[in-house]
Amino acid sequence: MKILQNALAGNINNPLPVWFMRQAGRYLPEYRALRSDVPNFLSLCYNPKLAAEVTLQPIRRFGFDGAILFSDILVIPDALGQEVRFEAGEGPKLGKLDLDSLENKGKDAILNHLNPVFETIDIVKSSLPKEVTFLGFCGAPWTVSSYMIAGKGKDDQDAARQYYYTQPIEMNRLIEILVQSSIDYLCQQIQAGVEVVQIFESWASSLSPHMLEELSLKPIRKIIEGVKSKYPDVPVIVFAKGAGQYLNQIQSITKADAQGLDWSVDIDYACQAVGQNICLQGNLDPIALLSGGIALDKEIDLIKEKSINQPWIFNLGHGIRKETPISHVEQALHRIRHC
Ligand code: CP3
Fold this sequence. Notes:
CATH class: Alpha Beta
Shape: globular
Bound molecules: coproporphyrinogen III
Helix content: 40-55%
Number of domains: 1
Low-confidence stretches: none
Radius of gyration: 19 Å
CATH topology: TIM Barrel
Strand content: 5-15%
Number of helices: 17
Structural class: alpha/beta
Strand order of the largest sheet: 1-4-5-6-7-8-9
Distance between the termini: 24 Å
């Protein structure tokens, strides 16, 4: 079994399997070179040859144990028919939210729109080294809805929470649309060749406890149930950033195969909260990676030491920063694997 899937199956590995969130992207000169030739970010996501190339870039350069599909969580609103644009330096901008038209978009039309993503998977699959695990992903309904409601990519979910308080019925309709389209999307990714999927709940921290359960965890459970009813053996990782205090509840509600941790989470506590058979993933501070030096080694050693009795995938606690030097990534991989 590949090492990353061995960890997901509940086994302890030495050295640890490792991949980094956002490992494909702007910190890589080869990504910036390729990106400068395409007019906008979404056209890169929908260009199978280029998206496959970008997926493979960090594998070639560093030899990570996992390759994450190059795409974005916002291809779902785009496929549902809500306009999505990425403007340089400003993050995503979305068009008007129209629930009726989203609800009227059929499964075939959505998957058809996303077909370039499935073609990307097909290309990557045929050129990935055999020991590397291929990960697909989607955003969790709450995180995706927060962009759809705010219409922009500011790190601020006020508009989405206000929508919930003032239009709870519409909020639930939107979450349901996203649950269904995410199930279809993930199943099609698996059909095309990904071996593991991760659900990104990047904005879990903005929810009160009962809203976390209603808008995040129960919808994520439905997605996992939907995927597992078709592909029971495909592991699902849930990464709910900023929800460290709820790990036990996240586990009992979603029944994920693994949980991603951000760097605020204490590892001893996390292992206790999820139990010894559940794989954990994380949780190096991306700023430690950006900083490098002795501090980086020290942070890596701490994670290795504390995770020793738990099935574990080494990762960052959030995406890699675009200013991160290549040499720090090399240093980190060496420290994780050989020290
Ligand atoms: O390497 C990988 O991890 C795979 C590709 C990937 C991207 N986005 C590429 C990307 C993945 C898994 C994502 C997920 C994603 N996208 C999330 C969840 C994870 C997280 O970071 O919390 C979110 C919230 C998004 C939405 C998104 N996409 C935003 C807010 C932005 C703009 C922010 C910024 O950094 O500019 C993006 C754009 C984006 N997605 C880029 C990349 C490489 C940069 C775009 C560019 O090249 O111009």
